[in-house]
């Protein structure tokens, strides 16, 4: 299954090779903090999105979209792994279930400078299930343990697992503990827990993000029963106040769609959750700092919308937000001077 690419929108060879971390050692210089992270999200957390989010927060841990082992081993792995130096701390999420293939891909990730490799044991889509990827692996804890051990034996960077609290047919707390226990015994020390079960028979991925109820109490019990493990909470978190409350129980929090649709939330993260005294960046300033990156992408032959589609939520809640979105999602396809139009969008956010 070599069809899941984080960079499918790119249309030309890179002119940013000097700024890429391909074939360089781990660029972050240590184990990244998982106190706050942005979830891997298909079609969303590509390298352009991550570059933008990094302008807002220096400390948030960013994840790639899920990349399958087949895409790396039988596709253009350099293109799949490409990222900008500024994106660190940065984790690669892998989808796969063959230990030897995952080990080979983990080595590629380490060689490319990634700070962590995360194994996807949470995606509920039919497409990944048919390839023994994602949430269906919760029914095979010994195999997940073998996958983790193979990767840990292959690399020095951390190997983590993102999973659900269960799947249909295997959704008891005892089975969850069995899964975590077996994967822990294989050497994994960090688990990101989406506090919903995944219903693999009959629900779409979107429905699986909404219909199964959130059960934070199950994830909290898991932390109490496995106090030696790092447990990161994922699922339904929308505000920094909620993050701070959950951090009383968990070692970290992971936000998904809220971080994408309301990205300016990240501008408060460094001060609120990492006690960092860096001044918050303004919305217009963030776009101004993004502009040279856009210029380089256009010079490569890329299109403006590859990048601007990720910033549409930046004006959320402000007068002029509708015009801002129209400029960067509709008008952007009609203009002959996309940078001038981008400057108009910046002007709309001045003083915000």
Automatic annotation (TrEMBL):
Pfam family, one: Dus
Record keywords, A-Z: Flavoprotein, FMN, NADP, Nucleotide-binding, Oxidoreductase, RNA-binding, tRNA processing, tRNA-binding
Coiled-coil features, chain-numbered ranges: none
Any one GO molecular-function label of the UniProt entry: tRNA-dihydrouridine20 synthase activity
EC annotation from Swiss-Prot or TrEMBL: 1.3.1.91
Catalytic activity reported: 5,6-dihydrouridine(20a) in tRNA + NADP(+) = uridine(20a) in tRNA + NADPH + H(+); 5,6-dihydrouridine(20a) in tRNA + NAD(+) = uridine(20a) in tRNA + NADH + H(+); 5,6-dihydrouridine(20) in tRNA + NADP(+) = uridine(20) in tRNA + NADPH + H(+); 5,6-dihydrouridine(20) in tRNA + NAD(+) = uridine(20) in tRNA + NADH + H(+)
Site features described as Interacts with tRNA, chain residue numbers: 120, 206, 209, 322, 325
Family: Belongs to the dus family. Belongs to the Dus family. DusA subfamily.
Annotated HAMAP family: DusA_subfam
Protein name in UniProt: tRNA-dihydrouridine(20/20a) synthase
Organism: Pseudomonas cavernae
